[in-house]
Amino acid sequence: MIAEDETVAVFGQFTYTSVYAKNTFTSPFSIKAKVQNGLISFFQFMEDTYASASSFRVGGEWIIQQDADPTKNFKVSA
């Protein structure tokens, strides 16, 4: 945790397990917050949302489009 004036930053990692699929993943996270008069006035949470979403996957194939050019698409398989 780092703080300067009213801005606070927190860094760490957590491990989640999806309830039904039972897939577990560990993700880094960071939080940026601003505190004014003892209250949080701004809160931003960042995590690996791709890992979070993939923890619900139980099979099949994903086609990921990362660019306007569809030839750059790639597949993710189980």
From TrEMBL:
Gene3D superfamilies: 3.10.450.50. It comes from the Bacteria. This is Uncharacterized protein. It comes from Acinetobacter amyesii.
